[in-house]
Design brief:
Shape: elongated
CATH class of the largest domain: Mainly Alpha
Oligomer: single chain
Number of helices: 7
Helix content: 40-55%
Order of helices and strands: HHHHEEEEHEEHEEH
CATH architecture of the largest domain: Orthogonal Bundle
CATH topology of the largest domain: Helix Hairpins
Strand content: 15-25%
Strand order of the largest sheet: 4-3-2-1-5
Number of domains: 3
Largest sheet: 5 strands, antiparallel
Amino acid sequence: MDVASLLDRNGLDRTIQAIIEILTTYGLSVLGATAILILGWVAAGWLSHMTARSLGRIGRIDDMLRGFLASMVRYFVIALTIIAVLSQFGVQTTSLVAVLGAAGLAIGLALQGTLASLAGGAMLLLFRPFKAGDFIEGGGHMGTVKALTLFTTELATPDNVRIVVPNADLWGKAIKNYSANPTRRMDIVIGLSYADDIDAALAVCREVAAADTRILADPAPQAFVAELADSSVNIGLRIWCDAAVYWDVRWDATKALKQAFDRSGLTIPFPQRDVHIIPPQEG
């Protein structure tokens, strides 16, 4: 046997020996890590599915929020699985978790505005203070809700301008939802001359309210003296109607009041002041 053959055989023996040592040392770890990885992957999918299914039984939770929470559960289980796999090979997972925690803190500080909008979107989707199609006022803006995502809410103003509002601005402040209740109340004030009959004016207001079938009978319309102002006696008409026809009723009732006052000879005065000129005293 020549020297080259001997060297080749010794190298092969050392390779085989090294492979045997590796399998002996890490074989069980590799098998355990593989088993943990498979079980963790299956458990992540199963728990994600169960989370989505359980949240689906709660009617007020939005589909987007349900999917987001289910995904969070899945990724959390996968993260725990990876940490468990690394621990099988002797990796110090405590240090790894500390590093990941520090990185997460740094990212959170850098993206605190975005994360605040994410949290706000989750709360809006969970508690549902409004839905698509509602007319709301919040975050310094007013409009009809067109879309709600985890980060932003899209509004359309009455003149059809698109506004995208961060959810953090909406959730952190008061929200007025003009479409939440089926009915709304309105107060219409009209001036009456001090020389005219107040009772006649109140009767005209009641007749206008009774003539419009869109004005609800319950609660009953109310006509009253709202204020004794500088130039007029302000007559108030308080009525209720369906929220869907609020503006139509308000515009029509205002027009009808003016026309009814004209027919009845009642005067809506212009602003006026009495000026008294004191003559200078002689002497």
